[in-house]
Prior knowledge:
Strand order of the largest sheet: 4-1-5-14-6
Radius of gyration: 21 Å
Shape: globular
Oligomer: single chain
Number of strands: 14
Distance between the termini: 61 Å
Low-confidence stretches: 1-18, 27-32
Number of helices: 9
Largest sheet: 5 strands, mixed
Strand content: 15-25%
Order of helices and strands: HEEEHEHEHEEEEHEHEHEEEHH
Helix content: 25-40%
Amino acid sequence: xxxxxxxxxxxxxxxxxxxxxxxxxxxxxxxxxxxxxxxxxxxxxxxxxxxxxxxxxxxxxxxxxxxxxxxxxxxxxxxxxxxxxxxxxxxxxxxxxxxxxxxxxxxxxxxxxxxxxxxxxxxxxxxxxxxxxxxxxxxxxxxxxxxxxxxxxxxxxxxxxxxxxxxxxxxxxxxxxxxxxxxxxxxxxxxxxxxxxxxxxxxxxxxxxxxxxxxxxxxxxxxxxxxxxxxxxxxxxxxxxxxxxxxxxxxxxxxxxxxxxxxxxxxxxxxxxxxxxxx
Length: 279
């Protein structure tokens, strides 16, 4: 009974704190006119560990990458300061639900399941899956079917993970899957040959393939079938409208193309030309 009473007390305290947190966020949102949580600031949630989209600079504290530059430009065009909130991928939607941030920009694929619960902006980049191996690999991997019996790394609960699962289900491919919290950890293990290959977004692979003295090579790339967008709560349609307007303007004046060039060394505007989310 004592243990029950203590647990009940702890629950009541936690509930009160959560209620206060929610009320506080609500008040902040009311003060900012309902567009953002805090007046004058656009808070952006992202998992900072997915280069070249979002990762830390050499100082270990400053986020950089494609999504960071995109978020900064969107905030500027909306007249806001920007604040990036680093969060674990498996809790990234919960952070949006509880008003930790206003939007998510984190190489997030637009899917039917996600659209059922959240709004997404127009697509800002298209992406395909790719297979990366160590440059000294002697496994003869040229297609996904060559991964039979091999150990394949990928970031858990991402489209690369889903791609490999679907491949197993569709074709019966027998491989040893290794899921990682961050994609960089998969590439680290590939570097030291603890795994045979990495399945990752082709856009993410660019960072590892173009590094000085890169120890990796791409042996296969699929067709672009996924598109990244800005995720926004369905409770905030006005913010969605403004984000889409900012992105349209960035395409029209060439700013988005410049960000592509900064990060990928080429204009990838063509990757969203036929996106079903940009009609």
